Amino acid sequence: MPDPTATEEATSQVQSPFESWGRYPTYGAKLLPLHWQSDFPALTANLHNGALPVGMGRSYGDVCLLKDGNLLVTTAMNRLIDFDPETGLLTAEAGVTLAQVLDFAVPRGFFLPVTPGTKYVTLGGAIANDIHGKNHHTAGTFGRHVTRFELVRSDGSHLLCSPTENPEFYAATIGGLGLTGVITWATLRLKPIVSRKIDYEGIQFHGIDEFLDLTNQAKDIEYTVSWVDVTSKGRNFARGVFMQGDHSAKKDDLRPSPKPKLIFPFEAPGFALNALTVSLFNTAFFHKQIHKRAVALQDYEPFFYPLDKVLRWNRMYGKRGLLQFQYVIPWEHAKEGTVAILREVAKSGLASFLAVLKAFGDVPSPGMMSFPKPGITLALDFPIKPDKSFPLFQRLADMTLEFGGRLYPAKDAAMTAHQFQSFYPQWEQFARYRDPMITSSFWERVTQNS
Amino acid sequence: MSTTPQSTSTPRKILVLGATSGIAEATCRIWASQGASLFLVARNAEKLAAVAADLKTRGASYVDTAVADLDDTDQHPSLLAHAVNSLTGMDIAYLAHGVLGDQTEAERDFNTAAQILHTNFMAPVSLLTWLANFCVQRHAGTLAVLSSVAGDRGRKSNYVYGSSKAGLSAFLDGLRNRIDREGVTVLTIKPGPTKTAMTAGMPKSEKFADVDSVAESIVSAIDKRRDILYVPFQWQPIMFIIRNIPERIFKKLNL
Question: Of A73, A182, A56, which is closest to residue A122 (Cα–Cα)?
Answer without folding.
Answer: A56
